[in-house]
User: Which sequence fits this backbone?
């Protein structure tokens, strides 16, 4: 057992490499401001998409498709549906919370020179249904794994990514000509940024605080942690 | 613009660090075999859970909870429901595909000394519904981002992770005492492994082939790529 453990530990990355992976995880931010008005070079964009594309997928289904949006008319149309959805959302808050919401910057659709809509073909026959009989939602989850790969690779490249979910998916489908059998999973604003904040913007703005790790862990069976 | 681009590029990681992040993304595998019979040290497990916990979440909701399962009775019960779900799934295939399915190794529930069930409190008031008015599914997606963080950190540590979705979620809830308002998102087998394969196991076994990146990308509007 000791011998096989020693062998197993040889598969670990070097200390420097491990630190780099943890750094990307720790310093990744949901970026909505500070985008630089300069498009990403094509080779960099392709590296990020390749990172997304090599994510795990249920049954090796690879259901994710990436719509790269650069043209300003399309981004303007998406920005308009953001504004409408955001007005509806804003109206649900009262008092101080309402003022706080109004002051938040929640997207960078027009400032980021490119946006990416990531969609999922949940109906694809690829993978031959393996792993999807009992939990079909794993098709969409595979696409989310791709998004997180892209997000971390982007951080390493000094590229900011912001996920905008304040959009009516039906109207988004119309703008991007997404057919009914394809599920829009995420709409991302992406580009070079002037800086990465040291903490999440919603924490800095006083909207919500992070929960301590220990309150998110339980053992052997589910239990509510009083701190969570 | 050139000046702000130069400033922006200063936020990028060093070449070595970038390579480490891409290496984790490229060499991560869905691992179902070769687990070493030696539990993960507690500090390593905590680093992996911390990586998961620092994932992005809609509205800073942090809805993910991690059930670490070590005890063999619980893993045996989960393995039993895997076997039942797997028999049902196996019966849906015919001919050569059926033989191929039967030969696949699809989980390491008993071999991996620990399993982790990752669940999502989709009903949590944390985050005050920010970002969830139009796309409430982003709560569960936040949990998937946490899973992918853990998966990549694990690869860097030389730790294998396998996602098992061939489980009836209702029976999984019973075994792990997961209440109705909490959504089971993923069941992971995790532990040291003797090696990481150079390609996905399902590809090696001839179950499915990877699609080329270019067939997964389109521009400005959705389009079906003939290669996809």
Assistant:
């Amino acid at each position: 057992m000791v011998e096989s453990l020693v062998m197993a530990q040889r598969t670990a990355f070097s200390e420097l490499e491990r630190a780099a992976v943890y750094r990307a995880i720790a310093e990744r931010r949901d970026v909505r401001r500070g985008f630089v008005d300069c498009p990403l070079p094509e080779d960099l964009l392709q590296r990020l998409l390749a990172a997304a594309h090599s994510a795990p997928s249920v049954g090796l289904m690879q259901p994710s498709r990436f719509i790269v949006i650069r043209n300003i008319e399309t981004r303007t149309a998406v920005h308009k549906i953001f504004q409408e959805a955001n007005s509806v959302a804003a109206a649900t808050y009262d008092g101080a919370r309402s003022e706080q919401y109004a002051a938040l910057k929640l997207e960078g659709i027009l400032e980021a020179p490119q946006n990416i809509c990531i969609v999922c073909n949940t109906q694809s026959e690829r993978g031959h249904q393996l792993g999807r009989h009992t939990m079909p939602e794993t098709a969409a989850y595979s696409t989310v794994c791709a998004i997180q790969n892209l997000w971390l690779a982007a951080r390493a490249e000094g590229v900011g990514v912001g996920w905008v979910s304040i959009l009516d998916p039906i109207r988004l489908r119309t703008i991007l000509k997404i057919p009914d059998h394809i599920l829009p999973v995420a709409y991302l604003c992406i580009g070079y940024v002037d800086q990465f904040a040291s903490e999440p913007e919603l924490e800095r703005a006083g909207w919500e605080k992070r929960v301590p790790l220990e309150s998110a862990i339980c053992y052997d069976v589910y239990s509510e942690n009083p701190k969570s």
Summary: The mean pLDDT of chain A is 95. Residues 161 and 190 of chain A are 5 Å apart (CA to CA). Residues 33-196 of chain A form a domain with the NADH Oxidase fold (CATH 3.40.109.10).
